[in-house]
Amino acid sequence: MSFGNEVQAMVYQGVEKNIIPPSFEKLEQKAKEHLDAKPYDYVAASAGAEMTKRKNKQAFEKWNIIPRMLRDTSNRDLSTELFGRKLSFPILCAPVGVQSIIHPEGELASARAAAAMNVPFVASTASTYNLEKTSEVMEDKERWFQLYWSSDREIAASMVKRAEKAGYSAIVITLDTPMMGWREKDIDHAYLPFLQAEGIGNYLNDPVFLSRLDQSPEEDMTSAILLWSQIFGNPSLTWGDLDFIKAQTSLPIVLKGILHPEDARLAVQHGVDGIIVSNHGGRQVDGAVPAIDALPEIVDAVEHRIPVLMDSGIRRGSDIIKALAIGARAVLIGRPYMYGLALAGEDGVKQVLRNLIADFDLSMALSGKTSVAELNREILRKES
Ligand SMILES: Cc1cc2nc3c(=O)[nH]c(=O)nc-3n(C[C@H](O)[C@H](O)[C@H](O)COP(=O)(O)O)c2cc1C
Ligand SMILES: O=C(O)C(=O)c1ccccc1
Known about the structure:
- The protein is globular.
- The strands form three sheets. An eight-stranded parallel beta sheet has the order 4-11-10-9-8-7-6-5.
- It is α/β, with parallel strands linked by helices.
- It has helices at about 5-15, 25-35, 35-45, 50-60, 105-115, 130-135, 155-165, 185-190, 200-205, 205-210, 220-230, 240-245, 260-270, 290-300, 315-325, 335-365; strands at about 65, 80, 85, 90-95, 120-125, 145, 170-175, 255-260, 275, 310, 330-335, 380.
- The chain starts with 5 loop residues before the first helix and ends with a strand.
- The protein has one domain: Aldolase class I (TIM Barrel, Alpha-Beta Barrel).
- The protein has 16 helices and twelve strands.
- The structure holds flavin mononucleotide and benzoyl-formic acid.
- Its cofactor is FMN.
- Keywords: Oxidoreductase.
- This is L-lactate oxidase.
- It catalyses: (S)-lactate + O2 = pyruvate + H2O2.
């Protein structure tokens, strides 16, 4: 058997040392056995009855790929382009907060792994390690900053400016989480890692946040955590507020959490640079539409005016093919790389990314396509 390219060879060479199962289901199971119930459930679970989490998976199963034959797929190009920059793969690490609950090196390990694999890392506002530290470990590699827009808008502005200064090349504003969804398992466990000061690293060194405290966090962490809980989210935001953030930065602005085609049109009208179709991995509105099912109408509504990305339920290479064939420019992954982090830190995240890239490369070739640009709806049919 010959391997299609270097990515394939890399996967098989590493087989003996692999701790990361190639199957997502086995990976999730292994992470479950490895972690305590509270942090595992925080990562794995979703809102309510977890309907949307299940539907994200079922929806991918309803889209079928119709491979094309005899098309010389010996040379393949997995790259894509976003905001004038070339990405090696159409894959990014989604913003995931509080990674220290599953591995002591948290975001630093994930960021290092992403940098090593040439996969952009989207650093969350809710990180345990601050954005400057995370930036440092990535050297010159592509990184974006995800903003949770604080109800204290000077804090939001401060974080955006810090991100630009630290070398992040886009700002992702997450719209679907002005407050946490109804997460029954976390409520059962009475689990809130923030109360132990995990996930608030970006606030603890923010000059504006610190200026709002009477005493430093070292002297009085309880007050810092209390203030964080009061200013974290901002449910009062409206489309008109986007101008404020745009005025703070020259970086491209990407809106995350779009599911309605009309919101996609509004995003274009308000001059943002990209959108991410996402239901937050089912963690916010239980019963929300699967992101992959929302994608076609949104891609059509946007009419190529800005790039459309998607996440929520990407588990395998074939899922990536489906999203790109519908019209996404790139996809983000959340839980898969969290499980890699839980099991083996930086190395675990690298293996998860490597498996996904290799699977995507192979499945694209076997579908008769040689580049991301060639993927289109011609090779897809949806079961009714
Ligand atoms: C544990 C966890 C924490 C998350 N934290 C954030 C966050 O801080 N900011 C954000 O925009 N999205 C956050 N998300 C959502 C992810 O960015 C992404 O939308 C989601 O995980 C994609 O679905 P998937 O897990 O099925 O791949 C989080 C997801 C998980 C699982
Ligand atoms: O848990 C999440 O899904 C999430 O987005 C989040 C929100 C605030 C802090 C940490 C994570």
